[in-house]
Amino acid sequence: xxxxALPPGILGQRRIRRMGRGRKSxxxxxxIMLVMLVCAFFPEFVAPYDPLAFDxxxxxxxxxxxxxxxxxxxxxxxxxxxxxxxxxxxxxxIFCTLFPLFFGTLVGAIVGYRSGWLEAVFGRLVDLTITxxxxxxxxxxxxxxxxGLLNMYIAVSAVGWVFYAQLMRADVxxxxxxxxxxxxxxxxxxxxxxxxxxxxxxAITPIIVYWMTDMALDILLGSSLGYLGLGAQPxxxxxxxxxxxxxxxxxxxxxxxxxxGIAIVLAGVGFSxxxxxxxxxxxxxx
Length: 286
What we know:
The protein is mainly alpha-helical and 286 residues long. The protein contains 12 helices and no strands. Helix 10 (205-228) packs parallel to helix 11 (239-246). The mean pLDDT is 86.
C-alpha cells in the first residue's frame, strides 16, 4: 500500500514516530547539558567535598562509597574537583565563542551581501588564517600573552571569529539571490534592513549548529591548554588540569585522569547532540 493510500490518521502517527526518533538525540543532549549546568551553577550543593581540601589520610584512594571517583595524590576528592571544574569549562565554552559568534556573524553578513573589495580583503584574511593550524595559532598567542584563562579567551576569539564569518558569508551569498531579497530591493528597503531583518534570520541556522559544535571543541581546546599549563592554572579545578595532575599516576591511580576525561567526552556529546537536534528541527520546518 502506498503512502497516498494510507488513512490520514496512520500517516500522522508515522510522522509523529519519525519526529520522536529524530528528537531523541536532542532530548538526550539537553539532559546532559542540564546536568552540566547544574554542576556549573551550583557546585557547592552538588560536590560532596571541598575541591581544594587536602586529606593526607586518604591519598590516592581508589573509588569507594566515601569517594566515588577516588582521591588524588594530595587526598583531594576527584568527584568534587570534576564537579567544580564544570564551572570553568562551561565558562570556556561560552567566553571563547561569544565574541566570534556575534562579530563573525556580523562581518560575514556584511561581506556576503556587499562583496567587492570587502570580499577580497576577507578572502586574504581567511587564507592567512587557515594556512596555520588553529591550535598552533592559539598556543602562539597564549605563549606571547602569558598563561591564564583571560589570555586564552583573547587568543581563541582573535582567530575563531573568522570561521563564523566564513560560514555566514557563504550562506548570505546564496540567500541574496533569493526572490525575497529582490522584492525588498524593489520596495526600497535599505541595506541594513535587508541584512538584519531578512538575510540574517534566514541564514542563521548553520551558525547556531556550528556554535554548538564549536563550544564542544573549545572545551576540548581549553582542556588541552590546561593540560599543557597554558590555560587554567593549578590548583584551579579544570578538567585538563586534573588530567595533567594524574598523568604521572596512570599505572597506580588511573581514576585521577580517567574521570575528568569522561566528563570532557560527555560535554562534547551533549553539545553535539543538541546541535544535531536543532539542525533537524530547522530542516523539518524548511
